[in-house]
Amino acid sequence: xxxxxxxxxxxxxxxxxxxxxxxxxxxxxxxxxxxxxxxxxxxxxxxxxxxxxxxxxxxxxxxxxxxxxxxxxxxxxxxxxxxxxxxxxxxxxxxxxxxxxxxxxxxxxxxxxxxxxxxxxxxxxxxxxxxxxxxxxxxxxxxxxxxxxxxxxxxxxxxxxxxxxxxxxxxxxxxxxxxxxxxxxxx
Length: 187
Ligand code: FES
Fold this sequence. Notes:
Elements: H1 3-17, H2 45-63, H3 68-78, H4 82-91, E1 103-108, H5 111-115, H6 118-129, E2 142-147, E3 159-161, E4 164-166, H7 171-181
Parallel strand pairs: 1-2
Antiparallel strand pairs: 1-3, 3-4
Helix pairs in contact: 2-4
Bound molecules: FE2/S2 (inorganic) cluster (FES).
FE2/S2 (inorganic) cluster binds at residues 108, 110-113, 149-153, 156, 158.
């Protein structure tokens, strides 16, 4: 494991031991597909990493994130060091160790989007959903993220809602835009 992950991993382990990161896990049985009883998970490095990625994809598909206690159980049953699993889980941005919302909103904060009002749009979405970038709403309906560039700068400012690219966004139309796609709850 790279050194930069070591501290994070130790914190992760401590939180796992204290039960701090398991509260959201609903206790579902781990499916046979994720954790076959006789699987060893051993092989050469590439093969092993690919195998871990596949495992993590299955877990995330089932839970929408990677619950810590599921990772621990898989590590034990597949005989893979938990550190290796954690390392892969934190390397790929598509994996999340935190619960994520049913609907994912990604705001671009790259230069092209920023100069065309991206920050205000993120602020407005944040206000409407009552969550900050990096957070998930308590009801687990929404997650809000920012990324540095989505690679479609001609569409700036850009917002992605559940994978749908929505370019040339404006603060004046963000509310109606979200209402058309998401179950916004007003007070
Ligand atoms: S800066 Fe926003 S898509 Fe590139």
